[in-house]
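Quick one: structure for this chain?
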Amino acid sequence: MTTSNGRILLVEDDVNLGSLLREYLKAKGFTTTLEADGEKGFRAFKKDHFDLCILDIMLPVKDGFSLAKDIRIQNPEIPIIFLTAKSMKTDILEGFRAGADDYMTKPFSMEELLFRIEAVLRRTTRGEQQSVFNLGKYVFDANRQLLTCENKTINLTTKESDLLKMLCQHPNQVLERNYALKSIWKDDNYFNARSMDVYITKIRKHLSDEPDIQIINVHGKGYKLLRESL
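Got it. Here's what it folds into:
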């Protein structure tokens, strides 16, 4: 990754966590501005151009929800990721109402944050909304939720389609369970995790006659879509 990855506004009042995140993001190629309260964050946003905002919710002076609403008035399109120690469903819903593109509950891994940043930027960058994928002899159309092969057509459920699309967007890479659950189900509880395992099994069955495509379990992490060629 290079220094052209983009500019991030990080607003986090925990000095140690904020500094750690800023240095990690810089190491991954993102120009990162760190502010410690919502008012300073908003002033920084108005002063410079940013490609993405990462906002803590429990901020002094101006909380993260209010800051996000102010940012959305200035730029309705900029992606926002919330960081918070809260995990109540009402807080998550309020975050999305305030304009969140994604939501992470502390504590979290740096790798998962990076994965989410890259995923959000892919979704929100023009021209990168790929919806049709070649899977060996199959063609997967995510928008139409169809998996086709010669004269065979499989109608996928919304969850199957969303999960397969996420796997296709990261071929030969680990798709973390928590990321997939929070992105598709909005909650990574035990029952949703079991539900996702069922959908993975169904997707494997749909693709079982295509030897060049495999979906494997990565113990303790998630799943990986293996393709012979990219």
